[in-house]
Amino acid sequence: MKTPNEVWTACRTGAWDRPTAGLAPGYAQANLVILPRDDAFDFLRLAQRNPKPMPVLEVLEMGESEPRLTAPGADLRTDLPRYRVYRNGELVEERTEIIDLWRGDLVAFLIGCSFTFEKALLDAGLPVRHIQCGCNVPMYRTNRPCVPAGRFSGPTVVSMRPIPAHLVPKAVTVTARFPAVHGAPIHIGEPEALGIADINKPDWGDAVPINPGEVPVFWACGVTPQAVAIQSRPPFMITHAPGHMFITSLLDDQVANG
Amino acid sequence: MKTPNEVWTACRTGAWDRPTAGLAPGYAQANLVILPRDDAFDFLRLAQRNPKPMPVLEVLEMGESEPRLTAPGADLRTDLPRYRVYRNGELVEERTEIIDLWRGDLVAFLIGCSFTFEKALLDAGLPVRHIQCGCNVPMYRTNRPCVPAGRFSGPTVVSMRPIPAHLVPKAVTVTARFPAVHGAPIHIGEPEALGIADINKPDWGDAVPINPGEVPVFWACGVTPQAVAIQSRPPFMITHAPGHMFITSLLDDQVANG
Which of A6, A73, A126, A171 is the least buried, fewest Cβ under 10 Å from its Cβ? Predict the structure, then answer.
């Protein structure tokens, strides 16, 4: 699938319910968070204080499901492959649409996703292992707390890509151009220092092989709000399923610096 | 005055009530917006949609007046030189403290100010005319509307600095490093195309001379929320007086890219 519209349609009709890395290359991908109005302001403050894991691409008006600024014509209730529903911090359901859960007091947030800069990594000659393997990116809960806001607190989540040691500087400079989709890595090597006990057992997504001469490179991840939800227990929250992102109409270059 | 704390104290004791350009060089300066909780979420969405005029440095918890993240120890009710009070979109009062106006439901926003990058401009050999003249920076209402959010809509406001034509590219690259304090200019030359009828009659601040061979360069300005307030008429809003900014404890480099 080459365009955002093709992916939206495939999700809406049930033809695609798998991870989105590599789909519609050149278009920015986004994490989804949906909260009732009462919790939405606290959440937007949380994102403002933690722009590395939660760079906000769009906050929709209350009750609206069409992202008019970043993906006109799409519907956030149907156009992602998979959703997760949290009640009081517990994951109660995973499903492929949320039409019957929608309410007039809900506020939807689109948060930048690091899948966006993977085309730039590939163009620069860097490997993206989970695309090579055809699986989901590995994601880990870390020991780095977010700056809290209102009712919300919790750990930063990271995604990991193994990079050959001599290409790690290039991975930093290439991704630093994209602060709206997590930007430069937050940690390079030494998973233990991030509180990751076993790099082969990610908390979300799939394990990927790290070849000899490669270093694990960690980027802040938009699954952070889900880790925050588990810790902070808001009454009701809907998100995308990790790795199953929303494709926006923004070109990668529109979310890049300069 | 060299440090933020010296400026806070001078404002609090009444020893300083004038514009802040050039004070505490090397520390980031900020615009202030204070709104009741009911309007604060709409305003934060407005800022998220319009990051050039309204780059958010900190959103305080409701009822708090100490910016714990960007200026611990300061008090936003007393530590700016001058405040403006708007009721239903009308400027009703200018004063040097807001202690008796403070309420438990107020939310304070600190928004980046272009005074922050003026040290970088000076260090790069660029003139900053209003500092040379010892007056306030000229600011203009433009014909460029902000992307609206909830109850808020209104025009973008710009600040203007005259730059010698051969140094204009340098002015762009130097300030582009500072997106959190308005970043690169939004318009160069041609004031009429921005809807500015007379460059010698700014809407806020003071007119400055434009010398032969100089081009007026326009940066998005944190007075935009005041123009928005005039148009959108929220019941109650407090801001800084244009040019009379809050000095944060953040070093310029902490709000710069890279």
Answer: A73
Produce one character per residue of B154-176: b if its CB has 16 or more CB atoms within 10 Å, e if not.
Answer: bbbbbbbbbbeeebbeebeebbb
Mean pLDDT of chain A: 96
User: Could you tell me which of A183, A68, A157 has the C-alpha nearest to residue B257?
Assistant: A183
Task: Quickly state the pLDDT bin for A258 (edges 50, 70, 90).
Answer: low
CA distance A182 to A142: 16
Point out the residue among A49, A179, A258 whose CB comes nearest to the CB of B176.
A258
Ranges of CATH 3.30.2040.10 domains, chain A: 116-220
Task: Name the minimum distance, in Å, from the CA of B61 to any CA of chain A.
Answer: 7
The CATH class that applies to domain B117-220 reads alpha beta
- Positive or negative: CA dihedral A176, A178, A183, A189: negative
Which residues 206-235 in chain A show a CB within 8 A of chain B?
none
User: Among all residues of chain B, which has the CA nearest to that of A56?
Assistant: B48
Residues facing B157 on adjacent strands:
B141
pTM, 2 dp: 0.87
Question: Is the CB of B56 inside 8 Å of chain A's CB atoms?
Answer: yes
Residues A183, A176 contacting (CB under 8 angstroms):
yes
Chain B interface includes A69 (CB < 8 A) = yes
Q: Which segments of chain B have a pLDDT < 70?
A: 258
The per-residue pLDDT for A257 is 80
Tell me whether residues A44 and B40 touch, CB distance under 8 A.
no
For the domain made up of A4-115+232-255, give the CATH fold: PSTPO5379-like (3.40.1640)
ipTM surpasses 0.95: no
Question: Minimal Cα distance from A37: which residue of B?
Answer: B41
The hierarchical CATH code for the domain A116-220 is: 3.30.2040.10
> Residue A180 pLDDT more than 70?
yes
| Residue-level pLDDT at A77 | 98
Subunit contact A44:B49, Cβ cutoff 8 A? no
Question: At the fourth CATH level, which superfamily is domain B4-115+232-253?
Answer: PSTPO5379-like (3.40.1640.10)
A–B: how many Cβ contacts below 8 A?
Answer: 42
CATH 3.40.1640.10 domain range(s) in chain A: 4-115+232-255
